[in-house]
Amino acid sequence: MMLYGGIEAGATKFVCMVGRGPDSIVAETTFPTAEPAETINRAIDFFRVSAGGALAALGVASFGPVDLSPNSPTYGYITTTPKPGWAWTNIVGSLSSALNVPVVFDTDVNGAAYGEYRWGAARGLSPTVYVTVGTGIGGGVISCRRPLHGLVHPEIGHMLIPHDRAADPFDGICPFHGDCLEGLASGPAIGRRWGQPAETLPPHHEAWSLEARYLGLAAVNLILCHSPLRVILGGGVMQQPGLIAMVREEVERLMAGYLQVPSVARELDRYIVPPALGGKAGVLGAIALAMDFSGQPPD
Question: Which of 70, 110, 122, 153 makes a 20 to 30 Å CA pair with 282?
Answer without folding.
Answer: 70
